[in-house]
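S.,

Sequence below, as promised.
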Amino acid sequence: MIKTFFDGRVGADAELKFTPTGKAVATFSVAVDQGKDREGEKRAPMWVKCTLWEKRAEALAPHIKKGIVVVICGRPSTEAWKDKRTDDAQAKLCITVDEFSFGGGSASSGESEGESRPQPQYRRDDIRSTEITDEDIPF
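The prediction came back faster than expected:
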């Protein structure tokens, strides 16, 4: 199985919906900084569509707000769509989130290789047995 880690800033508040069978699903997008090019110009961020399911979606969606830094790990996929303006086929990177944590600093803090990144706090197997309270949310 392929898993991918990303850290970045949430682009808009998470949207919580329910499937016809009653399963909760939360979606949000994360802007991942891609650094600078050879000329020193900042590259456009890469946008990743993220999906949380069931109890994690219900527990975390109210706390996933525009602008906060998050670290996600999950199974990547792509979603095809057609650009209405140019009629070109496009693909969007999507992640079904298995691990999630709130970041504490800037998504583009320029950390050196010796510095550690925040580790995901909520794992797929742990969330079923752990209640998340307001004290667990770092803000």
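Confidence is low (pLDDT under 50) at residues 105-120, 122-130.

Coffee later?
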